[in-house]
Amino acid sequence: MEKAKTLGELKKSLYKSVSVRDEMRTNLLCKLAEGQPLFPGIIGFDDSVIPQIANAVLSRHNFILLGLRGQAKSRILRSLVTLLDDSIPYIAGCEINDDPLTPLCRACHERLAEMGDDTPIDYLRAEDRYVEKLATPDVTMADIIGDLDPIKAARGGHALSSELTIHYGLLPRANRGIFAINELPDLAGKIQVGLFNIMQEGDVQIKGYPVRLPLDVAMVFTANPEDYTARGKIITPLKDRIGSEIRTHYPASLEHAMAITAQEAWTDRDGRTKLVIPEFLREVVESVAFVARQEKRVDKRSGVSQRVPITCLENVISSAEYRAVKNHEDKTVPRPSDVYTAMPSLTGKVELEYEGEMRGADSVVRDIIRQATARVFKKYYDGVPLHSIVQWFELGGTLKYSPNDSAEELYSHFKKIQGLLEQTQRLGIKAKDDPALLASGAEFILEGLSALKRISRNEELGFFAEKQHAESPPEEPAPAGHRRRSLN
Question: Rounded mean pLDDT of the chain?
Fold first, then answer.
């Protein structure tokens, strides 16, 4: 059906004006009735956050999302556009997207009086009806509400007190849409006053000139709960006018967290080599965030963002990609040692308590990776006899290699250790699989045994048995004039 191009055609189409909150409510009810997902791409909130957001929308509330960093708050707000109509009509050229049937601004009233039913109509897409602003202390009333424009007054021959001289800010330009403010507590108090005045009364004063703006806007906010409750920067009248307060959270299960990381991480590389990420390694990367959130040396108030495993996985893949290309391999298979190589993607995202700062970020993150490895290792090998592998080291075996050694080189090392490669079957790796997968699985077993302190590992000696190393008799001094041959 062809869209109306003038006000007269719009009237003949029997178009009816609907407020944005009623529009969102109607579309939400339709999605619920049809069993459609409300917010595609938002994982792990189906039984907690999403029902509360649905209740707020059905109640036509302005609402605020409270949560630590990396809890998908901004993504949820941007997903609200899926509750808007595909397009809506507005008076062509209007700065605040006036409804053709009920215009607000003075310019549109004068235009309608002059042109009547011939007034041209344009259409706003759903994605153009979402306006977002990051709150910072330097945001001004002019940015959010608007200001008088002397140049506009001069060009149009208007007095400065005329409404036609106003240059509208972000909030009026979000009219008939959604206006989102991230980190609301950082917004200056006087701006918050302007917000609640618009929300409650629909009017505002610009440079002492009262302007009546009964805007049709759904207002949504985000804030960190620490700022929201402790710093007390949200003024009471504004908090009172926010209909619903919804708390977000980190993924409750490893499966949900892995699904989020798989969705967000950049794993689709240029195809120089085939990428295969073992499932157990994805679990280790994800467990790093879970362990860090429980680590006493990590600041709980700051939180551990879901971006931690996302950037970690990307760095792990890059480390494996570097090794595969350097060794001219046709398959990229990350190993547990790549998680340690990815430490630069972790240390900058973890805020430490005093004790952690004394130890240093590198030391704390290494401990976290070891704990994450132990947690996943127990899942696969709890109660599994691995005595033959441990015994190989206790009888004097040591294993040292470079993280950039090829899969064939590691495979040749690992097959000397009795029972090691056979145990990779518990990881879903078959004996006939290529050396890259077998090497990754075998290294995971050694890292797991090391994390549980059944064998030891350090930079100098590689993997070894602490018991054997401690009980080995001291070497006799070499005869005078004899140079001892290095084993390395």
Answer: 87
DSSP state at residue 352: B
- What is the band of 207 on the pLDDT scale with cuts at 50, 70, 90? low
Burial state string for 176-212 with b = 16 or more CB within 10 A and e = fewer than 16? bbbbbbbbbbbbbeebbebbbbbbeeeebebeeeebe
Average pLDDT over residues 416-435: 89
Phi, psi (deg, nearest 5) at residue 471 = -90, -5
Rg of the chain on CA atoms, in Å: 31
Instruction: Give the span between the Cα atoms of 362 and 346, in whole angstroms.
Output: 9
Taking the C-alpha atoms of residue 267 and residue 151, their distance in angstroms, rounded to an integer, is 51
In terms of C-beta density within 10 A (0-12 exposed, 13-18 middle, 19 or more buried), how is residue 144 classed?
buried
pLDDT at 258 > cutoff 60: yes
pLDDT at 481: 40
Structure tokens belonging to residue 436: 């890259």
Burial of 238 by CB count in 10 Å (0-12 exposed, 13-18 middle, 19+ buried)? buried
- Cβ atoms of 4 and 121 closer than 8 Å: yes
Q: Please give the structure tokens belonging to residue 231.
A: 């710093």
Contact yes or no for 218/132 (Cβ under 8 A): no
Count of all residues that appear for the chain in the document: 488
All domains in the chain, ordered by first residue: 7-247 (3.40.50.300), 254-470 (no CATH)
pLDDT above 70 for 202 = no
218, 224 in Cβ contact below 8 A? no
Phi and psi dihedrals of 293, rounded to 5?
A: -70, -20
What 8-state DSSP symbol labels residue 280? Answer: H
